[in-house]
Amino acid sequence: MHNIKPKITLVGAGPGDPDLLTLKAVKALAEANVVLYDALANEEILDYAPKNAIRIFVGKRIGNHAYTQDQINQLIVDNALTYGNVVRLKGGDPFIFGRGGEEVDFAESFGIETIVVPGISSVVAVPASQGISITKRGVSGSFWVITGTTSDRKLSSDVALAAQSSATVVILMGMHKLSQIIDLFQKEDKGNLPVAIIQNGTTAEEKVGVGTVDSILEVVKQKELGSPAIIVLGEVVRESNKLKGFYEEFLSKETIR
């Protein structure tokens, strides 16, 4: 174990489908001495690491935090100093609500070389898996991506601003705040705005519920949708080839009424 050169590679594992891992991620995993990984949607991804690589689960699941963020930061550095090449594997993209920036800053304060391998974010991939293009010419020229739950466990104040815009709104980690989110859109008179909720997107366990701001809470109850899920609010939901039929049927029912 002489001349160990510590190195940390932050790798985005993508939204869940192991085929949505990048080639760069696969190459980084192949060279890992240690893999510290989050609660991944698909642990098959770990098979790309060498058989003798040390694998350490450091993920957070609601109500069960294996480690605090400070402990994770320290583990990354300790393992790099002891074993050399550490891959820190995070779901989606490491820099989108993944606290990857904090991990890089901490590692660099020890003078350790860090590399970031971007991942395909669920923000775009999960809506795309349902045919939802989050921007579409003539329909939506921009999108907001918001975390439903801020670090102090409150709903982000950006949701109220987003509800006033004509942009597509994509909310992650928002299922526990769904009724508050819906209230804010109803206040802006957007009861008929299409909404899709996609649970476990891009995986075999994927479940989808579609409706409008006014009807989505009922849909969630019927379909028993829960976390982890992505909430998409916007006219682009209606444009999806996969979901179009629902809205055509829905609108004809509304007209009959």
Keywords for this entry:
12 strands; 257 residues; single chain; five-stranded mixed sheet; alpha/beta
Commentary on this structure:
By secondary structure, the chain is of the alpha/beta class. Helix content is about 30%, strand content about 20%. Strands 3-2-6-1-7 form a five-stranded parallel beta sheet, with helices on both faces. The longest helix is centred in the first third of the chain and has 15 residues, at about 70-85. Keywords: Methyltransferase, Porphyrin biosynthesis, S-adenosyl-L-methionine, Transferase. It comes from Flavobacterium anhuiense. Pathway: Porphyrin-containing compound metabolism; siroheme biosynthesis; precorrin-2 from uroporphyrinogen III: step 1/1.
* Tally of alpha and pi helices: 9
Radius of gyration: 20 Å
Strand content: 15-25%
Structural class: alpha/beta
Q: Shape from CA axes?
A: elongated
Uncertain runs are: none
**Span of the ends, CA to CA:** 75 Å
The helix content, as a percent range, equals 25-40%
Strand order across the biggest sheet?
A: 3-2-6-1-7
Query: What would the average pLDDT be, to the nearest integer?
Result: 93
Order of helices and strands: EHEEEEHEHEHEHEHEEHEHH
Total strand segments: 12
- How is the main sheet built? 5 strands, parallel
Keywords: Methyltransferase, Porphyrin biosynthesis, S-adenosyl-L-methionine, Transferase
Pathway: Porphyrin-containing compound metabolism; siroheme biosynthesis; precorrin-2 from uroporphyrinogen III: step 1/1
Domain Tetrapyrrole methylase: 7-215
EC number: 2.1.1.107
